[in-house]
Write a structure and sequence with these properties.
DHquinase_II; 5 helices; EC 4.2.1.10; transmembrane
């Protein structure tokens, strides 16, 4: 049986009200609820964590293997572009991570074009709004099924 952890980074607690023309009108609670249902339909437990604090995200990533997580879906928000600490935490664990972004960061300001975590994640899904999360969860669920067979 697999187990997935979804980590949301800074400012994602403001979803639904923060620049909805970019990030949409769904709240973080809405997204977590929909992802929970998606995972539960395949019998996979999913847990959720959000923090505006880099160190809390690092601690959560480091603890993932000991807590039995098989995959992490991570929207590191602005930390994506400069957090070597989060990058190193991902590199230090043996749990695959999928990087997710609601917006197409490559169509936005230039400082958003570079992801320092990209070299140490399994892959990236971005630009599809909340569907970016659902696509990542679909990949995770498929990978878990493949491991079980």
């Amino acid at each position: 049986m697999g187990k997935v952890l979804v980590i949301h980074g800074p400012n994602l607690n403001l979803l639904g009200t923060r620049e909805p023309e970019i990030y949409g009108y769904e709240t973080l609670a809405d997204i977590n609820d929909m992802l929970q249902k998606q995972a539960a339909a395949d019998g996979v437990p999913a847990d959720f964590f959000q923090s505006n604090h880099e160190g809390d995200i690092v601690d959560t990533i480091q603890q993932a293997p000991a807590k039995g997580y098989n995959f992490i879906i991570l929207n590191a928000g602005a930390f994506t572009h400069y957090s070597i600490a989060i990058r190193d935490a991902i590199a230090a664990i043996n749990v695959p991570v999928i990087e997710v972004h609601l917006s197409n960061v490559h169509a936005r300001e230039e400082f958003r074009h570079k992801s320092v975590i990209a070299p140490v994640v399994m892959g990236q899904i971005l630009g599809f709004g909340v569907d970016s999360y659902f696509a990542a969860m679909a990949v995770v669920l498929r990978k878990i099924k493949q491991r079980l067979n």
